[in-house]
Design goal:
The protein is mainly alpha-helical. The protein has one domain: Up-down Bundle (Rhopdopsin 7-helix transmembrane proteins), CATH 1.20.1070. It has 15 helices and three strands. A three-stranded mixed β-sheet has the order 1-3-2. A hairpin with a 6-residue loop joins strand 2 and strand 3. Helix 8 runs antiparallel to helix 10. The protein is globular. The protein starts with a strand and ends in an 8-residue tail after the last helix.
Length: about 350
């Protein structure tokens, strides 16, 4: 994320700085491109894994798949483009205004949609656990999931189009590397409000939702241990199995939220609280870009590590592809029939999916 201050007395790019930090910039370029490739493949693979299973698509599965797809777009398109333009194009000639305006518009829109989608997933899980019956009746359909996705894109695009038309800031080449970014107009409250709507508010609300979920589940567990037998407690026990399945997904999502906050929040905090230091520190901006990309690259691995359902489906897809590519041995009708029956019985005995 490149955010600079409006100051016409500062030179946009200093070639001596490029010579001074050439080794570090070259190393940074290699790390960024490597992480981008790994992140794109990991996010796309997990997206296909989720969308290929009807059970994984249910509940918040559509929202999670959208989150991974947007992260894959950042890893495969936006961040590599920002890296290449910083390393190759900016040192040779200033980037065009039109190029910067278009690329940064979609880059920041995609960046902010990740925040809103993650927030909507946390709200989805909160309703699913705290109000499970209302969730099944009103929030579990695909229509609601796609509506929430449309809402996130609408809010983010409305905010970024303000800057696109030079309200509160400008999309243009910024210091110190000459890469495309946002130049904030001083004494304007528009861009700070955009930051609150697209960054601070969704990130804070997401954290509140997960804290509320853990507090609610902990309180219900305390009631069960004390054997308080009343109507509410009996109702909680009847739906406990379903809630526990949803609660497992919350553990996975809360860990990814903490990791993503560590990777994403330093850039907006540094640019907001210490704007002059951020805009004039060459290596700080490069390091924060690497940290941001680490967040998008590692999220799929966190999901796979903490979700048995994702791992099982991924292994199943892998074996299906391997089985399709390998030559098939001859089978006898009776053997095939026994295999089909045993497979059907095994599928019936499998537990229901955690995402409802």
């Amino acid at each position: 994320m490149e955010i600079g201050q409006n100051n016409s007395n500062l030179t946009l790019y200093d070639r001596s700085m490029w010579i001074e930090y050439h080794f570090f910039v070259t190393l940074w370029f290699a790390v960024m491109m490597g992480l981008s490739a790994v992140g794109a493949v990991a996010n796309i693979t997990l997206t296909i894994t989720i969308l290929s299973s009807e059970k994984l698509r249910s509940g918040c599965g559509v929202l999670i798949a959208h989150l991974l797809l947007v992260s894959a777009t950042l890893c495969a398109v936006h961040l590599p483009l920002l890296t290449v333009t910083t390393y190759y194009m900016a040192p040779k000639q200033p980037l065009g205004i039109t190029f910067c305006r278009v690329t940064v518009l979609f880059y920041f829109s995609t960046l902010y949609v990740v925040n809103w989608t993650a927030m909507l997933i946390s709200i989805n899980r909160f309703v699913a656990i705290v109000y499970p019956y209302k969730y099944n009746a009103h929030f579990a359909s695909y229509k609601v999931g796609f509506s929430l996705i449309a809402l996130s894109w609408t809010v983010v695009l409305c905010c970024n189009f303000l800057v696109f038309f030079n309200h509160g800031g400008r999309f243009e080449a910024t210091r110190p590397w000459g890469a495309c970014g946002i130049t904030v107009i001083r004494n304007s409250m528009i861009y700070p409000m955009i930051t609150v709507i697209c960054v601070t508010f969704p990130t804070a609300l997401e954290g509140v939702m997960y804290v509320a979920i853990f507090a609610t589940v902990g309180w219900r567990a305390l009631l069960r241990r004390r054997k308080i037998r009343h109507v509410v407690e009996r109702a909680i026990e009847r739906r406990n199995s379903l809630v526990q399945k949803r609660y497992r997904s919350v553990k996975m999502l809360s860990v990814s939220y903490l990791w993503y906050s560590v990777c994403f929040m330093p850039a907006p905090i540094a640019s907001s609280i210490f704007p002059h230091v951020y805009s004039s520190s060459p290596l700080l901006q490069l390091f924060l870009r690497v940290l941001l990309l680490c967040g998008y690259t590692t999220i799929p691995f966190i999901y796979l590590a903490l979700s048995n359902d994702y791992r099982s489906r991924f292994v199943q897809l892998y074996h299906s592809i391997s089985h399709f590519r390998s030559p098939q041995p001859p089978t006898f009708p009776c053997t095939q029939e026994i295999f089909t029956i045993s497979k059907h019985v095994h599928a019936k005995n499998q537990p229901n999916e955690m995402f409802y």
